[in-house]
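Limitations

Structures in this collection are predictions, not experimental determinations, and the ligand pose is part of the prediction. Treat each record accordingly. The example that follows, with flavin-adenine dinucleotide as the small molecule, is included so readers can see exactly what is and is not provided: the inputs are given verbatim, and the output is the predicted complex.
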Amino acid sequence: MSENRTDVLIAGAGPNGLMLACELALAGISPVVVERLPGPSGEPRANGLVGSVSRVLDMRGLYTEFGGPAEGPKPLPYYIFSGMAFDMTGMDAGPMAALLIPQPELVVKLLARATELGVQVRWSHELTGFTRDDNRVRVELDGPEGPVVIHTRYLIGADGGKSAVRKLADIEFPGSTAEGTVTRFGHTDVPAAWLTPDGGIEIPGAGRFRFGHNRVERGMFVFAELPSGTMMAIQEFDAAATVVDEDAPMTLAELREAAERVLGAEVPLQPPTGPGPHALRRLVGQNTRVARHYRDGRIFLIGDAAHVHSAIGGPGLNLGLQDAVNLGWKLAAHLNGWAPADLLDTYHAERHPVAERTAMHSLAQSGLMLPGPETAGVRALFGELLAYPQVAAHIANLLAGTDRPYDTGDNHPLSGRLVPDFRLGDGRRVAELLRTARPVLLVTDTVADLAAGWPDRIEVITATGAPAPAMLIRPDGYVAWAADTLPAADDPTLRAALTRWFGPANSLVA
Ligand SMILES: Cc1cc2nc3c(=O)[nH]c(=O)nc-3n(C[C@H](O)[C@H](O)[C@H](O)COP(=O)(O)OP(=O)(O)OC[C@H]3O[C@@H](n4cnc5c(N)ncnc54)[C@H](O)[C@@H]3O)c2cc1C
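Predicted complex:
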């Protein structure tokens, strides 16, 4: 049996595990990623990313590299809450931006970046168990040539909703399961004459439906014309009886039958001809759960391993990729020897509440899809409220994951929030300052000896154009501290913020 050592072992080469690997590698840490599949997963799940994650990817140069426009993310003019469109055009800086990219492509691109950064990915290695002591975790894996043991200082569960790491660590996963719900979805082909110019569909005998989620009397109907092909999903409530055998492969005929039950018309679906990859799946029940703890000593959870919820509105990767970016710099700081004592604990403190908010809004959106006249009444009222700009802004920030600032210990209105998107006087976008994931102290004018005790950790940049004369930006793009006047080099609030997030002055220099 082979035995190896590493600082960080990441279980799962899904999008979130690979993103974390990239973040660690950027900071000089070489993680090992283990993945039970023989290669990158081709399973069609997400069709894109939506929310503040677009801006975070942009900070690493990935938004454009992954297919977004060269000028970075643009706020969406409107988005959908439980199938109800709301307008964001009046918002100063709309927080919702998107990137259309099928999940398999995202995984391949993140893998290429991780490989370029020197990350080792071991395919066909399934984590089967672990034991731990005060210094290490001894991880047992099933490899292609038999059992493998890796001793690691930190183990990350990025192994999806059914996370073995979470279960083996005995981390509670509280929440709810909607028992009777059955969702069937897949790529398909529909008669071209049914497609409407606004991206929706008109089905003879059933009516006209918009792009995205539609509530109908007997369930939910999702329709989307995507670059990968035509996607259709049918959700039925109290429909468990319609599943003959949960292990039986899903078929197009089963999707068609569900569509006909819910839409009350003939829906002759044809096999998909789009480029794919093609999905065809049945989901029985719907879990909405958030792990009680994101950290248990040397073990951390990120992504779906830490939280699961309905895919309505596509919030999964907005949440998970930002878990990865939040944990990455903190764990690297710890391993590089400069992290303040409680930095690693701020991962749970900051990210757990965001998952709770996501669980809440995905339940609310699912609830607004339930059958019955009462739901219809609530929807009508909710629709009226959404027309108020203040309500639309509230919902937009909730969906973007930007509605509650992190507690950074500084009370400037910018602190704890993702740095606003702006252009510096020299023409650069603020996102470009964060390509290498180093903390940045951005000031509008030169101050001698500013952050002089942190030269190894902080990059001081002098440039005009920022919304405040001084801002301390963490590697994940969040503002740790800001001031409305240029600080003196010995400004106590700045020194406190630098120490709180990046350790004592000269801690590595002496
Ligand atoms: C139908 C559907 C549509 C969706 N649409 C969207 C969308 O439009 N937008 C969006 O943002 N999100 C969407 N999501 C959610 C998104 O797909 C997930 O949030 C995302 O896959 C989570 O990534 P992850 O890396 O945390 O986990 P996963 O993608 O599940 O990856 C976990 C990896 O761990 C591996 N693994 C598991 N156990 C072990 C083990 N014991 N040892 C080693 N490896 C292991 C798995 O093989 C897998 O590769 C959708 C989900 C579904 C199901």
